[in-house]
């Protein structure tokens, strides 16, 4: 019998949903029930008890989530419900709360997914006919609904296309209905692209737990709580509740509401670039704060480098944050990342630090790369050796006193590999990533280094070199040509020729120069 | 397709248009000669490059692809900044995606360089039987607005190469005519062989020393 909270590696629990995923990209495949039979249920029961039958259970399952110990849990969805406060801490309330939320969704769905034809008899035909322009016309609502549904459906059809589960028509309908209801319940936000990929893993995790539950309950009677919480009939209801809770935190990252005031920006960005001026959007403010404060704090050289290349964090960071890194890791790892994010806090504070840890993980490659290769690395994040190390790194960055520094601090091995492969990374897509995965798998994974001394000096050498040679090295190689040359170009060269000194001074002067150059030059579109 | 070849110009080209018209597949068709039947929704921005030869010049096309529904100023400005070409894509089977072309054009001119080379692209000609946007309509619109125009199929690989080639050629024509009038060729060309990565001092060439 295995303890479900055993450290990674010793874990051999009977049912690993993602183990099957690897084989046939669908969970709950066939397990040989005769050999597992009763012991399956016993281990199932024991896993439940170990997770939830403890006076201090919530703290413990939070730790389990943060430390990546839910990877093969058959109750991940229950843990997520607790993290996301869909379930209260008090276990005696679980069944009632679950019922309550489910009937809420039932009502919501009834309200929003109606067919105007059905209700047509109740409305005046002058108002209610297909050609009516009346706002209150049910037909009008019907057409609006169709447009919204079409928009959602278009994305749902493109959700995890490599997984068979998401190709099933009833799964797609569930996803669409949930997103539709959410949009109708949140008219300010409606549906925004990307929400579908926050919902999909939730639906999938519920599905896996339901499969495990059904399998285990073939041989014995599960508890009342299990039967209620893991009832597959209510997958859609439960997913809606979890998704809504998640969106409570994630909503501003999808909102295009523009805040007029720029006070915060001004304090955080002394040398505001032209694109930073004007109204701000929460997600843009967030990723800029991460890059300009956190990255700068933890790796000044990297910060300097991305600034010099003018890589705005919104170019890559919006997707990272909005999908909670959903496109950057394979699903197995992604769920582990979400375990940690949710377990840590419903406010998802850890997102910022995972973001930074990801940048630091590839920092050597970034620093050694030009604009194009950097963008390639950031937009097609390379396969990571061990997701747990990344999470530990994130925790360490946030709170170094209470979290151990990840052990691997050696100089990374495959920088050369990056330098030669970096170019191809630019051209890779998700499809090609698979090939790259195999390529990467053969080399040692990168270690998370903050600053390795040899590289630091290497970077310095680069800067000194470019200064002494008076070459606009990084700039001229990386920046595309501008239609509006003239003044703008002179400024670029001025910038590089005058850049001297090192460290922050260099950045500061560069920023000032750039700012002036831009406002007087190509940014205004002078020909 | 690597980035370690030498090139004379880097041209940044952006793909715009409504969600689902096939922007990402035009990108992958052109840069990798691939088509993905179930490509995922673009979130934020995508990016890919391809180096092509245009007469005697090597041009690196840096192509940016954005989510059709993305509407933030702070993103769009970063997205359009430095763009010298744009493919404004609609779906010939979905009239609504054509109707919004004007709005896209406005956004483009609001944020991008006024001299940007724009091509109107009617994609999905492989679905000819479902066509709802007549070629002539789009052609007229393009002419009136001074846009290049082509119909493409990323799926069947029809006209994709030509579309990008034409845009890049036109950009080059604009840039080089300016060069001649200004006599400042060296200021524009980002020539010199490019090292694999900027982190290799030995490989650097003093590309702009003559300035």
In helices, the fraction of residues of chain B equals: 25-40%
- Within the CATH hierarchy, at the fold level, what is the topology of chain B? Rossmann fold
| Class by alpha and beta content of chain B | alpha/beta
Proportion of β residues of chain A? Answer: under 5%
Beta-strand percent range of chain B: 15-25%
Mean pLDDT of chain A: 74
Which overall shape of chain B is indicated by the principal axes computed on the Cα atoms?
globular
Order of H and E elements of chain A: HHHHHHHHHHHEHEHHHHHHHHHHHHHH
Major sheet description of chain A = 2 strands, antiparallel
Q: Low-confidence parts of chain B lasting 5 or more residues at pLDDT below 50?
A: 179-211
Using only C-alpha atoms, the radius of gyration of chain B works out to: 18 Å
Largest sheet of chain B: 6 strands, mixed
Over the alpha carbons, how many angstroms does the gyration radius of chain A reach? Answer: 26 Å
Number of helices of chain B: 7
Give the end-to-end Cα distance of chain A, rounded to a whole number of Å: 74 Å
List keywords for this structure.
heterodimer; A: 527 residues; mainly alpha; Cyclin A, domain 1; two-stranded antiparallel sheet; 26 helices; globular; disordered N terminus; disordered C terminus; B: 211 residues; alpha/beta; Rossmann fold; six-stranded mixed β-sheet; 6 strands; 34% helix; Rab-GAP-TBC_dom (chain A)
């Amino acid at each position: 019998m295995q303890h479900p909270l055993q450290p990674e590696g010793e874990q051999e629990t009977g049912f690993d949903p993602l183990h099957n995923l690897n084989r046939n990209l669908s969970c709950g495949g066939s397990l040989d029930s005769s050999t597992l039979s009763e012991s399956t249920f016993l281990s199932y029961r024991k896993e439940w008890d170990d997770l939830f039958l403890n006076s201090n259970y919530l703290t413990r399952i939070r730790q389990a989530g943060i430390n990546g110990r839910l990877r093969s849990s058959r109750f991940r969805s229950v843990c997520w419900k607790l993290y996301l406060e869909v379930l209260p801490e008090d276990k005696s309330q679980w069944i009632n709360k679950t019922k309550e939320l489910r009937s809420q969704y039932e009502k919501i769905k009834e309200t929003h997914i109606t067919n105007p034809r059905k209700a047509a008899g109740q409305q005046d035909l002058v108002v209610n006919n297909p050609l009516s322009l009346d706002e209150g016309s049910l037909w009008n609502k019907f057409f609006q609904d169709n447009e919204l549904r079409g928009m959602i459906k278009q994305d749902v059809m493109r959700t995890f296309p490599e997984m068979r589960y998401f190709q099933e028509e009833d799964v797609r309908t569930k996803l669409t209905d949930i997103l539709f209801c959410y949009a109708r319940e949140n008219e300010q936000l409606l549906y925004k692209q990307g929400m579908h990929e926050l919902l999909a893993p939730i639906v999938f995790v519920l599905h896996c737990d339901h499969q495990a539950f059904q399998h285990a309950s073939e041989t014995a009677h599960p508890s009342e709580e299990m039967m209620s919480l893991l009832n597959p009939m209510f997958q859609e209801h439960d997913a809606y509740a979890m998704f809504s809770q998640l969106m409570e935190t994630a909503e501003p990252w999808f909102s295009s509401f523009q805040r007029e005031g720029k006070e915060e920006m001004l304090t955080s960005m002394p040398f505001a670039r032209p694109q930073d001026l004007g109204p701000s959007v929460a997600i843009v403010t967030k990723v800029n704060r991460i890059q300009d404060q956190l990255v700068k704090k933890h790796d000044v050289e990297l910060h300097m480098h991305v600034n010099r290349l003018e890589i705005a964090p919104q170019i890559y960071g919006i997707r990272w944050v909005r999908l909670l890194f959903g496109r950057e890791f394979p699903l197995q790892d992604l769920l582990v990342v979400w375990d940690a994010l949710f377990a840590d806090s419903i406010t998802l504070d850890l997102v910022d630090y995972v973001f930074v840890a990801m940048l630091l993980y590839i920092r050597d490659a970034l620093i050694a790369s030009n604009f194009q290769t950097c963008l390639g690395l950031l937009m097609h994040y390379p396969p990571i050796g061990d997701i747990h190390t990344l999470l530990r790194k994130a925790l360490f960055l946030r709170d170094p006193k209470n979290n151990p520094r990840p052990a691997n601090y050696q100089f990374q091995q495959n920088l050369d590999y990056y330098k030669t492969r970096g170019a191809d990374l630019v051209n890779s897509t998700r499809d090609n990533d698979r090939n790259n995965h195999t390529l990467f798998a053969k080399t040692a994974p990168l270690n998370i280094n903050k600053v390795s001394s040899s590289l630091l000096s290497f970077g310095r050498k680069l800067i000194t070199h470019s200064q002494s040679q008076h070459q606009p090295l990084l700039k001229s190689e990386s920046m595309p040509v501008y239609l509006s040359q003239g003044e703008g170009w002179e400024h670029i060269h001025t910038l590089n020729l005058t850049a001297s000194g090192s460290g922050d001074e260099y950045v500061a002067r560069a920023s000032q120069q750039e700012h002036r150059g831009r406002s007087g030059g190509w940014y205004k579109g002078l020909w | 397709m690597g980035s370690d070849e030498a090139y004379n110009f880097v041209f940044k080209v952006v793909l715009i248009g409504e969600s689902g018209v096939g922007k990402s597949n035009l990108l992958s068709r052109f840069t990798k000669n691939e088509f993905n039947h179930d490509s995922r929704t673009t979130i934020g921005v995508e990016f890919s490059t391809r180096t092509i030869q245009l007469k005697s010049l090597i041009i690196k096309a840096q192509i940016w692809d954005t989510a059709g529904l993305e509407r933030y100023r702070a993103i769009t400005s970063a997205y359009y900044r430095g763009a010298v070409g744009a493919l404004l894509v609609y779906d010939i089977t979905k009239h609504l995606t054509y109707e919004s072309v004007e709005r896209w054009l406005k956004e483009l001119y609001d944020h991008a360089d006024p001299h940007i080379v724009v091509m109107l692209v009617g994609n999905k000609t492989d679905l000819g039987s479902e066509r709802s946007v007549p070629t002539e309509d789009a052609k007229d619109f393009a002419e009136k607005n001074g846009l290049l125009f082509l119909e493409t199929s990323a799926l069947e690989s029809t006209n994709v190469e030509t579309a990008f080639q034409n845009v890049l050629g036109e950009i080059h024509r604009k840039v080089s005519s300016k060069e001649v009038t200004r006599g400042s060729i060296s200021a524009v060309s980002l020539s010199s062989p490019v090292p694999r990565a900027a982190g290799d001092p030995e490989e650097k060439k003093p590309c702009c020393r003559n300035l």
